[in-house]
Each structure stands twice: as structure tokens, then as C-alpha cells.
Design goal:
Helix 5 packs parallel to helix 6 and helix 6 packs parallel to helix 7. It contains eight helices and 17 strands. Strand 6, helix 3 and strand 7 form a beta-alpha-beta unit. The strands form four sheets. A seven-stranded mixed sheet has the order 1-8-7-6-11-12-13, with helices on both faces. With about 375 residues, the protein is α+β, with helices and mostly antiparallel strands.
Amino acid sequence: MATEGNRVSSIKRFLAAFALLSGFAAFPLAAQQQPEPHGVAPGTPARPLASTTQNNRRPGINITSNAVIVSVTVKDRQGSLVGGLTKDDFRILCDDVEQPISYFSADPFPLSAVVVVDDDLTSKQADQVQKSLTAIAAGFGQNDEVALITYDEFPHLVSDFSFSNDILFTQLKRLELNSHFSNIPDTGPMTAGPMINGQSQATGVPTVGASINPVTKDMDDAIYEAGEMLKNRGRDRRKIIFLITDGSNSRNNDHSFGETMQLLLSNDISVYAISVGHAFLQHQTNRLEHYAQGTGGDNFFASKAGDLGRLYPTVAEQARNQYTLVFSPQDLHKDKDYHPIEVRVKRPNLSIIAREGFYQPGAALKK
């Protein structure tokens, strides 16, 4: 296990190497670190993010560079993380052309995380998540900074970035899911229509689909807002979105899937999604899988509260303990803004999770 001093030293070496690859002189670590923000006071009501994300953005160092960072998770057949690999164990292909690896690190990095919680679940799902929420805090350490938002039709800020695990624990403990009572049962006297002697009576108004509740929550917008919060965090940190959801998503998002993916890939942000309830059986995880796989994150499934409590620390551990590979793309297709990446490992019987591509700086916004 790396000591704290060795870990900081490793991150400094990484930043210096990245700066040199970018054509700039090495810059001090302090230039990349963000000042610790004050968390929202415990008990403060959640508020819409529309007016907060603009104010909460912090300046970062904008490096004009073609160097690409790729964080890689390696697992064995049992799904356990694999350590001990070296630079020579990896290959990177971009636009089907093998790329030289300019920098490699196997050291863990601290996390900048936005925990995003679906606040429009069924009563059973909400109860399961509610019972497990405080276990999320156990996955983060003193060097990790964490923010918390919930979402239904709109994302709502609960707690801004803070290094204080106590603040995170308190906010999670006080969070009341489904407090807006959006999950009104879709059957009952208010939806059944007029009845005489147990027989429904025609009213002249079609009742087909009357018991179907349209999806009104915007998952794409919630992920986009989390990406906006993360994009200017330092390059000395892993930037992740920790998403807990049933996977359903409305058709009325302000931000499309493509636009959201471009934001995430352009800012080295990975999505780790935990699907709750019967999302997998109801085929509601396809979008989650695309977010996770495309950004180099991962997708997990939980059917009960006990599963959730065990998964939370697993997600944080996996995100922190990734291999870091950096390359400067060569022989790219210059007529394209998006370039696919494939990472391969030379050792047998291992699986790899890594981002599937990147966008050229200044690429046109994808709608």
C-alpha cells in the first residue's frame, strides 16, 4: 500500500510529465489543487442546480494539448481487481493505429466525486436506497472531495464539494427520498372511472393507457449537471459520477445523450452506475451501460438494500485504484472530432474497462 507521501510524490510526477507532454514547463501541484469549498450546512433544503452550477464552477488550468489520459481498470475472471501490471503489459490503439504510451502509473489517485441519487423511485426502491445511503460515506477517504445531488424532473444540489466525511454522512442521513410524493399509485378510485354495480361505465373519454405513468425524470440532465460540477476539478484527481438510479429517463431532457457524453469524455469524467430494483429485468439499463462503458466507469446491479451497502465501497475502491496511461495521438483521422480508443492487456484471462474514445479539443458540440 502506497504511503501518503509516496502518493503525493507520484501525483506530482504525473502532473510534471503531463505538462511536459503538453509542451509546457512543469507546474507546481498547488496550481492544480482546488481550494476546499464549504459544504452546505446540514439540514439546508436541496435546491435546483440551474442557478448554482454556474456560481460553483472553479477555474482550472487549461492546457492546449493533444495528450490523452486513459484510466484503466483490470479484472480477473472472478471480477477482482488485478494489480502488479506494468507499462509493458498494455497496448493502446487509437483510430486503429497503435500509440506509444508516454506515461504510466499504477498508483491510486484521490477522488473528486458527485453522488447522484434518483429521487423518483417506487416506494419499495426508495426504501431500499434510503436504508443504505449512509454507507456511501464509508467508501470515501480524507483526501476525497464529494458533492451530493438528487434528481427527479430537475437536479437539486444537496451538498457542494467537501473533504469532510462528516458533512457527507450527515447529508446522507438527513436525505428523505420521495418526499415530494411523486409516486402516486396509478390505480384506484381516481383512475378507475365511474362504476355502477361493479361495472365500468363508458364516459366518451378513451381510457386506454390511463393507468400508465409517463416518465418525468431527466437522468441525462442530472449526469450533465454533475459533469459540469466536475469538469474543472484538478487533473491530480480521478473525476467520477456515482449514480444510483432505476435507469428510467424521460424524453424531455435539455441535454442529449451525445452532448452529455461529449462533456464527460472531454473532461476525463467516468460514470459508475448502480441500478436498483428491477431495472435490469425491465431493460432500463441500456443507457446506463453506454454511459459507464463509454467513459471507462462501470455498471452494477442491486436488488436489495444489503447489496447496495456492499457495493458502495467497491465502487469507490475500483475508481481510485486504476492504472493511468497517457499518450499523444499519432496518425489520427483528421476529418473526425471523435476518435475511438481500444486498450489491450497482453496477459491472458483478464478483462479491461477503459474509456472508448475522446473528442478533439474544440470539437463541435454534439446534439
